[in-house]
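Late entry, adenine complex.
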Amino acid sequence: MTIGIIGAMREEITPLLEFYKEYERIEAAGNTFYKVNYKQVHIIIAYSKIGKVHAAITASIMIATFGCEQLIFSGVAGGLTKKLKVGDLVLATSLCQHDVDISAFGHALGFIPEGKLFYESDSKLHNLALQVAKNIGLNIYEGIVASGDQFIASQEKKDFITKEFGAVAVEMEGASVACVCDNFKIPCCIFRSISDSADGEANVSFDEFLESSAKVSANFVTKLINEIVADLS
Ligand code: ADE
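Prediction complete; structure with ligand written out below:
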């Protein structure tokens, strides 16, 4: 079994590389992939660089070149609901692209013909993640995550994304990874720990909490990997 773990930024995968310690570096498609042999699985780790295009390239290479059979995204997000505080962990139930707009042709915002408005996370991985959270007594927040090539830092944009898509968190990659996985028929699961509230202070909060929140998500993903491995035997 080969599992891919993607982050968008270096800070989002550094805790994973520190945890697994030994890895091989492989260059492909303008990116560095880190191959870890862990128990009876292989893990491919990479940061894609920010945005949906970069994340889609990384996800595709992980599947098509490295043979990943499951993809997990680990990183940070802006919280759209007051219930989410910095450091809280969000598990995406489904993901959408909040910046897609071909409504001039009568399509719903976020919808691309022959694509999907919402890409679901894999139910088996999702349930396994909930089980892990329960086992370690961690409160995990489930909801729709919206992705777009924009850093959201205003109440107006927050309100739009919340009302239009019912999203609880916003980031810049998850939906593209979920879309790639849907097309390749590969299970995927997206984790995000809150770094900011996507408001006027979001840039300051992001800079302050990127590292600590990235660690929350990465730590959880290492525990999920253990559960996936245990489930194999
Ligand atoms: N990732 C973390 N915070 C974000 C925000 N406010 N907007 C988009 N992506 C984010």
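The chain has a mean pLDDT of 97. Will revisit in the morning.
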